[in-house]
From TrEMBL, chain A:
<dbReference type="InterPro" id="IPR027417">
    <property type="entry name" value="P-loop_NTPase"/>
</dbReference>
<dbReference type="InterPro" id="IPR017871">
    <property type="entry name" value="ABC_transporter-like_CS"/>
</dbReference>
<keyword id="KW-0813">Transport</keyword>
<dbReference type="InterPro" id="IPR013563">
    <property type="entry name" value="Oligopep_ABC_C"/>
</dbReference>
<keyword id="KW-0547">Nucleotide-binding</keyword>
<protein>
    <submittedName>
        <fullName>Peptide ABC transporter ATP-binding protein</fullName>
    </submittedName>
</protein>
<dbReference type="InterPro" id="IPR003439">
    <property type="entry name" value="ABC_transporter-like_ATP-bd"/>
</dbReference>
<dbReference type="GO" id="GO:0005524">
    <property type="term" value="F:ATP binding"/>
</dbReference>
<keyword id="KW-0067">ATP-binding</keyword>
<comment type="similarity">
    <text>Belongs to the ABC transporter superfamily.</text>
</comment>
<dbReference type="InterPro" id="IPR003593">
    <property type="entry name" value="AAA+_ATPase"/>
</dbReference>
<dbReference type="GO" id="GO:0005886">
    <property type="term" value="C:plasma membrane"/>
</dbReference>
<dbReference type="Pfam" id="PF08352">
    <property type="entry name" value="oligo_HPY"/>
</dbReference>
<dbReference type="GO" id="GO:0016887">
    <property type="term" value="F:ATP hydrolysis activity"/>
</dbReference>
<dbReference type="GO" id="GO:0015833">
    <property type="term" value="P:peptide transport"/>
</dbReference>
<feature type="domain" description="ABC transporter">
    <location>
        <begin position="8"/>
        <end position="255"/>
    </location>
</feature>
<dbReference type="Pfam" id="PF00005">
    <property type="entry name" value="ABC_tran"/>
</dbReference>
Length: 322, 293
């Protein structure tokens, strides 16, 4: 990917939450020094278990939460340095699709109001023009025009999620951050929604960050995958390479944890992680994964493993070569 | 995938459904009927009756209820019924105006505190703390000494005293609302504070506002009556229920001319009760959990 110009470049993105209690003060490391790049039109998956910082990355890039440190460059503009006013204008170019289709649509607005809200905010003039754009967005997610005057509670989860996608697309953004867009949906609706998102992404040449914990979905949708653990990047590789030839022990554990459909399948080679995810307020020294890693040695506790390129386009943060 | 038309009938908006629930509450409807008919009486009476609130009938001083003076007369021969209705107009004017004022101030300050970030929150909530420490009687004495007692200062004092409670209610609602995905989405599309307050905060705290407004009208009527009874509210010769009670506080009047205090007191109780019933009905109507009941 290095020969392409980077459309999105994330540099040293860090988010710490300081918790103040009586007589104590602790820092939760939600995100620590995360750097990666995404080319225009590329779909990159962010994978990791709960609490690994997937959502934090997505929201920090769009500045829905303020990062503690680091830079986000979108098409050459440093998003983290924009003034509040400039940021509001810039938001047109980057949009978010939420996980929960029930919480992400206002119960007190009609679908038409929800879809035109962003257009009003971005100064698109003319009620008729906005209505037409909302209708086009509805049509692009296969919803009927009469949905415009209805309320969100009249729709199913899958329909609501498509409304959420239409809301993001109506502003004609260049970057979409999709935060587990199908994990709250029925399996039967998941495939439909994924295919819709993928075809919209290809048709509009969108750059997409796709956050998920479902490796199967990510492999299907994404060109490249970033594996996160406890707010740090463990491994980056193209989807095919990552699933066929993972280099990081954590990625291997994640892949082997994907359940198969065959109950009689041989699971003797399965690698099951012991223990829980460490406390992000008190992360392990050195490699954050070492407490659960079957290959950990003393040196893992001593230094933070750098993200190194093991072969072109394939990065891993592990000092062991196992 | 095929476009499937949605064929079921168009659903009502959330506000319409709340209104429907309100209509099915007998207590609230009785309260509304009583309040509406009293209001109608207050507004129509001066147009059809020849006896004004300050018309003095020297042949009828301290007279009991009769055909010419339905609720009797007071110590200077004024018609109690006419004064009662005039007092109701002034009491309600004071109560409604001050409630609207405290509604606007309370909502805006609560909204800025809840959505405007940590610094705005700190400033707004400290001003709430200060406003909550204001002692009503002393504040009114100070104001009265500057402007003289009257309807205007009374409205001002009641508004200044009652908005902090609303600010706290609105703030806690909006602190939670600000984390909801659809508000995050709105910010993500470029919404500033004004848009968030107008398009999201207002419709999502309308239940708090409506209930506060009705209950506040009731308590403002009582506060006005209390202030006027102390001689600090609406000054004579203007009538208000509070200063009618104030005028009738001597033992002679209490024992010999009960119509002079009984009727304003009764009116006060009935109106405040009716408004409280309406407020309770509205609170239930806006609470989605009461849907099945």
């Amino acid at each position: 990917m290095s020969e392409q110009t980077d459309f999105l470049s994330v540099r040293g993105l860090t988010k710490h939450y300081v918790q103040r209690g009586i007589g104590r003060r602790q820092t939760v490391h939600a995100l620590d020094d995360v750097s990666f790049t995404v080319a225009r039109g590329e779909t990159v998956g962010l994978v990791g278990e709960s609490g690994s910082g997937k959502t934090t990355i997505g929201r920090a890039i769009l500045r829905l939460i303020e990062p503690t440190a680091g830079q986000v460059l979108l098409d050459g503009t440093d998003v983290t340095a924009l003034s509040p006013r400039a940021l509001r204008r810039f938001r047109k170019r980057m949009q978010y699709v939420f996980q929960d289709p029930y919480a992400s649509l206002s119960p007190r607005m009609t679908i038409g109001e929800i879809l035109t809200e962003g257009l009003v905010l971005q100064g698109v003039r003319g009620r008729e023009k906005r209505r037409q754009m909302a209708l086009d967005a509805l049509a692009s997610v296969d919803l009927p025009a009469d949905a415009l005057d209805r309320y969100a509670f009249e729709f199913s989860g899958g329909q609501r999620q498509r409304i959420g996608i239409a809301r993001a697309l109506v502003l004609e953004p260049e970057l979409i951050v999709a935060d587990e867009p199908v994990s709250a949906l029925d399996v039967s609706v998941q495939a439909q929604t994924i295919n819709l998102l993928r075809s919209l992404q290809q048709r509009n040449n969108l750059t997409m960050l796709f956050i998920s914990h479902d490796l199967g979905v990510v492999e299907y949708v994404c060109d490249r995958i970033i594996v996160l653990f406890l707010g740090r990047i463990m491994e980056i590789a193209s989807s095919e390479t990552l699933l066929k030839a993972p280099r990081h022990p954590y990625t291997r554990a994640l892949i082997s944890a994907v359940p198969g459909l065959d109950p009689d399948a041989d699971r003797s080679g399965q690698q099951v992680l012991q223990g829980d995810i460490p406390n992000p307020a008190n992360p392990p020294s050195g490699c954050v994964f070492r407490t659960r890693c079957p290959h950990a040695i003393d040196r893992c506790a001593a230094e933070v493993p750098p993200l190194e390129e093991v072969e072109p386009g394939h990065f891993k943060a592990c000092i062991r070569d196992v | 995938m095929a476009t499937t038309p949605i064929s079921h009938p168009r659903a009502k908006s959330p506000a319409r459904r709340a209104l429907g629930r309100f209509g099915s509450k007998p207590g609230a409807m009785i309260g509304l009927a009583v309040f509406a008919s009293l209001l109608l009486l207050m507004l129509v009476h001066p147009l059809v009756s020849g006896i004004g609130p300050n018309t003095i009938d020297l042949r009828a001083i301290n007279q009991g209820p009769s055909a010419s003076h339905w609720l009797g007369t007071d110590g200077v021969g004024r018609d109690v019924f006419a004064r009662l209705l005039e007092g109701g107009r002034i009491s309600l004017l004071v109560a409604v105006t001050s409630s609207v004022a405290s509604l606007v101030i309370g909502f805006l300050i609560g909204a800025v505190a809840g959505l405007g970030g940590r610094i705005a929150d700190a400033i707004a909530m400290r001003s709430v703390d200060v406003a909550m420490t204001l002692p009503p009687v002393i504040l009114l004495l100070v104001l009265a000494s500057i402007t003289g007692p009257g309807i205007g200062p009374t409205i001002l004092v009641i508004s200044l005293l009652s908005w902090p409670v609303l600010s706290r209610l609105v703030r806690s609602r909006l602190l939670e609302l600000g984390q909801r995905d659809f508000v995050v989405a709105s910010r993500g599309m470029g919404a500033g504070l004004g848009h968030l307050i107008w398009r999201h905060a207002l419709p999502n705290s309308i239940d708090i506002l409506v209930v506060f407004a009705t209950l506040q009208v009731a308590s403002a009527i009582l506060l006005e009556a209390g202030l006027s009874f102390l001689g600090l509210g609406v000054p004579p010769p203007d009538a208000s229920w509070g200063n009618m009670l104030f005028a009738a506080r001597s033992t002679t009047v209490l024992t010999n001319y009960p119509w002079q205090w009984m009727f304003p007191g009764l009116a006060l109780v009935v109106v405040v009760l009716a408004i409280n019933f309406i407020g309770d009905g509205l609170r239930d109507a806006f609470d989605p959990r009461s849907e099945g009941a």
